[in-house]
Structure formats: structure tokens, C-alpha cells
Amino acid sequence: MATYSHSKINTFETCPYQYKLHYINKIEPEITQTIEAFMGDLVHQTLEKLYKDKKFKKRVEKKILIKFYRDLWEKEYSEDILIGREIYFRLL
Fold it and tell me: How far apart are CA 16 and CA 18, in angstroms?
């Protein structure tokens, strides 16, 4: 049985065409990732780990989840990620 995230379901409910482009055709928009989207994705991946571990009756410790999040951050962070406040201050 397939597993669908809340994000996928919400995207489909909002716009089935957007769902098709993103999840089926795997077309990524040509925009730079924002810090909000980056952090949201890391939180999503961390919560997914939590629920998968709970599903298989694994013990889930807070420090393990925090380490998982930090490791993802170190692995995936890029200087290309837009941080809104920096953009705002550059405009002043």
C-alpha cells in the first residue's frame, strides 16, 4: 500500500495539475529555495523518521531526532538558500 504525506495530499487537493508536474513528472520549478522551505523540509523528514520508527516499535529519543535534524542540516545546507531578512536588509 502506498503512503502519502500530508503535503502530497494537500498539493493534489489544491491543484491536481501541480501535483502531476511535481510528483509524477518530477518537474522542479526554477526558483531558489528559501530558508522557510529548507527548514520545513528538514522538519518534515525528521517527523517522518519519528513516525516510521514508532510504526516499527522502535524507541524514539529526543536527542536522536535532534541529531538526525542537525545531520540533515549539515548535509543539505547551501549558501544558495535565500534568507528573507538578508534580502530585506539588502534593499534598504
Answer: 5
> What phi-psi label fits residue 26: left (phi over 0), alpha (psi between -120 and 50 degrees) or beta?
left
Cα radius of gyration (the chain): 16
| Band of pLDDT at residue 91, cut at 50, 70 and 90 | very low
User: Which residues, at least 6 apart from 12, have a Cβ–Cβ distance to it below 8 Å?
Assistant: 19
Instruction: Please identify which residue in the block is written with the cell numbers 495530499.
Output: 9
Q: Does residue 36 surpass a pLDDT of 70?
A: yes
**Cα separation of 55 and 85, whole Å?**
39
- This prediction's pTM: 0.60
Beta partners for residue 82, in sequence order: 34
